Amino acid sequence: MEKILAKEKLRDWVASLQGCEVHGPAFADAVWNYAKAEGDIDLRHTNTVGSVKAFAFPQREVFFRFEHKRGERPSLVPTLPEPRPTVVFGVRPCDGRGMPRNDTVFSKEFKDPYYWARRDKLILVGLACIEPHSPNCFCQAAGGSPCSEEGLDILMTDLGDRYHVRGVTAKGIEVMERGRDAFKEASGGDQAAVAKAHEAACKEPQRTFGDLVAIPDAIRRNFEAPLWDEMARHCIGCGICTFLCPTCHCFDINDEVSSPGKGERVRTWDNCQFPDFTLHTSGHNPRDNLGMRLRQRVSHKFLYFVENHQTQQCTGCGRCISECPVGIDIAAVLERVSQS
Amino acid sequence: MMDNIYLPKIGRIAGIEEETQGGRAIKTFKVEFPDGDGFEHACGQCAMLSIFGRGESMISIASSPLVKDYKQFSIMRMGRVTTAFHEARIGDLIGIRGPYGNQFPLDDWKGRDLVFIGGGVGLAPIWPVIQTAVARREEFGKITVFYGARTSRDIMYKADFERLKGSADVQLSVDAPEAGWPAYVGFVPANLMDKAPSPDNAIAVTCGPPIMIKFVIQNLGQLGFADEQIYTTIENKMKCGVGKCGRCNVGKDYVCVKGPVYSWAELKSLPQEY
Amino acid sequence: MVNPKEIRDYAAGLLEQGRVKSVIGYRRGTAGCFAEPCTLTEPGEAGSLVWDPTCLNNLALYLVKDRKQQAASRTPDRRPIGIVAKGCDSRAVAVLLQENYFKREEVVVIGVSCEGTGVVDPRKLKNSLKGRSALKVEFGGGESIRITTRAGESELPAREVLADRCLECREATPKLHDVLFGESLAERGYDAPFRAVKAAEATSGEARWATWQHHFDRCLRCFACRSVCPLCYCPECVVDSTSFVITPQTSAEEKANRIRWCERSANTAESALYHLTRAIHLAGRCVDCGECERVCPVNIPLRLLNTKLEMEAFEQFDYQAGRDYDRPALISSFRDEDPNSFIR
């Protein structure tokens, strides 16, 4: 389904989504992030600092509440979320491509009911990147494109005074149907304009690194090389790169106790760059330095994920590069690994 | 409705055996399923045990799959959750989910000699396969069990070893000399070289402290065991048990799903991140 | 104006003469126009050193990192390290010296004066460029910053793009140094110290609480603010229940009974506990390098928490962290004239 939406009609489309929770990018506290949309949605955003993964995989998820007195039967109350349909506007194609990768992680071997309870209700309305929103974008080097539909339910393209809106999935088309009065039919001219805009978008300069297909071998070849230690030398071991990443999914599980015997078992985001991530109770740590942890982050995305799922677990959003406090740059790491 | 993979079943501690005392105390727990919702497991698999309010820990199932009434776990007191288990009493209710991980390919080993080499609490993960092999005694050749501990007081499963002697060649050792000790004195890898089991048509299975495993594998190689004839089981920190939380990986494998059992041939091809 | 070549030559000299094992400085990064930290070990590498308003990092952090590495090493290398330091960075070195983290002879401070400007705030820069990226950011001479974009070159008044900490900086010239590049300017026409925190304090208690609830609620607990702080060097941290130091000798009891002061959940209460604990632990120690605020991916104004406590230290005790490395630290000293009304 292809339609045209005049920019001033976006508000009408959003208003038609009654019963849904609607989120869109908002500029607050000097950063773009997703926020609940009321009325208008500002789609002039670069990329949101947090990725869209949090809608299905929030930073904190309560698995169940427990109450247990010794000698008595513990009561366990599962807290599976029951969200309303949630429509997210302004999803950049890199974040869109992240979601099928997360779907794989939360489906393979065992299906994760908490993730899927949210994911099944999620409708992603993408916005093509007519120009790179950061100097560290590398979606094309990572196998994607600034106008990729992968993982999105709807793809919008800014044509100046209007949006071209393409329904990609049945879920997306349904959301377009609900706002049908806001749309006009797309003409042949509109289609030509979209094709032209997408073609121009793909020609915008982006970061590059060596041949994507050759990278697994390059990592294997350099696995024991000193370059990991060198490149991680100034890493401070914080969680920015992984917490902002649209595909990093590592988590911790803890019992949070509110009073004796009573509390919640909680999943929270975790990060392979924290020293305690792999620390055994004995004090032994299989990845006990920053070089090994950088290697893990890069290998997970560009080697292990490829070996297990035949695709990269990085979509080139560039957040980990732009937001790193000390200039650790996954594109530069890959380039160096490719050439070593 | 999808299974809630994070919601544990309720287990009841039906028996507690104090195996060893001191700084590295080990207790063995028999866990029953009072709701009748127990699960089957295979040799080498693990389960996620929890004490509500303290947290979860992945523990290998030490009983044979042939035992259906309960599951047995031998737990060394190491941290938050294991200490809570050591403070537990018979009748206490715990959380249990599983089983997780792969298994020892026991059926592939029919007709072969089996050499088990354990050290310390590392006996627990290979104990179910020893028990099962002995229960199916006629399917296998010679069965030898090497086991060593620091002192005779640190030896696990003492009563079981007495019974085991009827069907297997048991070779015990203690690290340092002590009065009245009738068997070998010295480390496990040395005892292995001393008895020098034949690699012909044999499979060796080892688990113990990392340093012991390292030398046992070296020595097995010297005895002529090929990498494919050597099996071990590895551990890493785990949180989810279902291949998602991302921390137990060794290379591309999540140990909780693809492990913990590996042949040395397989393990050698993975990065040494365990 | 500081000529970067002089810094390069000096660094190369230090390495050539074997006076230091390494020089920590800034080089051009690959991720945009900002400089990144570098560690030089060969004189030939000194050519990569840069000095411009994108040298944001407080490199004293890497002195701490090296010290931790040497402490864990079987063959520690305790030869001195050279470090390029702005005014704020050198104050951090001074606090580390005061706290005996290392000895004066173990560090060679290559002081660089920020003169009439300082470093830019990447967010202000982005705003002033309406979201576009700068290709190059240089000192423009005097109180201006020269910026090159794809559209060309322009000169901006430094006030518009300087980091807040630079606007409030009391000492833009490193007092503690072994060599100093650049002029020492007594007067800089920017904001009075503690301007931002005073403005924040002027609002009502309810408003402040609402503001901070809002910010703590946004915290991701990536711990970048703690990781980047040269004075957050504790090997174990009270807010991080699982990262305490474990040795083979640590008993099960110790591990089991460790109190979890702070849960991992990034909710308002736990994150408030984290940030307030951290702020209190930095009282009388924070040198206002502003790194915590700079690195925060969601832009929590963390500087306000720390400068509030530094303002107390200054107003109550006439104490400025990092001003005098050879005097006792605030927390570990007592003078008869110290206000002590709380004792009565």
Task: Quickly describe the structure.
The complex is a heterotrimer of chains A (340), B (274) and C (344). Chain A is an alpha+beta fold and 340 residues long.
Features:
heterotrimer; A: 340 residues; alpha+beta; 2 domains; eight-stranded mixed sheet; four-stranded antiparallel sheet; 11 helices; 12 strands; C: 344 residues; alpha/beta; five-stranded mixed sheet; three-stranded antiparallel sheet; 13 helices; globular
How many strand units of chain B?
15
Low-confidence stretches of chain C: none
Radius of gyration of chain C (CA) equals 21 Å
CATH level-4 homologous superfamily of the largest domain in chain B: Nucleotide-binding domain of ferredoxin-NADP reductase (FNR) module
Largest sheet of chain B: 7 strands, mixed
Radius of gyration of chain B: 18 Å
The end-to-end span of chain B amounts to 36 Å
How many helical elements of chain B?
A: 7
Range of strand content of chain C: 5-15%
Tell me the fraction of residues in β-strands of chain B, as a range: 25-35%
Query: Structural class of chain B, please?
Result: alpha/beta
The low-pLDDT segments of chain B are none
Helical residues, percent of chain C: 25-40%
**SS content category of chain C:** alpha/beta
CATH fold label of the largest domain in chain B: Rossmann fold
H and E order of chain B: EEEEEHEEHEHEEHEHEEEHEH
* CATH architectural group of the largest domain in chain B: 3-Layer(aba) Sandwich
Envelope shape of chain C? globular
How do the strands of the widest beta sheet of chain B line up side by side? 10-9-8-7-11-12-15
- The best one-word shape of chain B is globular
The average pLDDT value of chain C, as a whole number, equals: 91
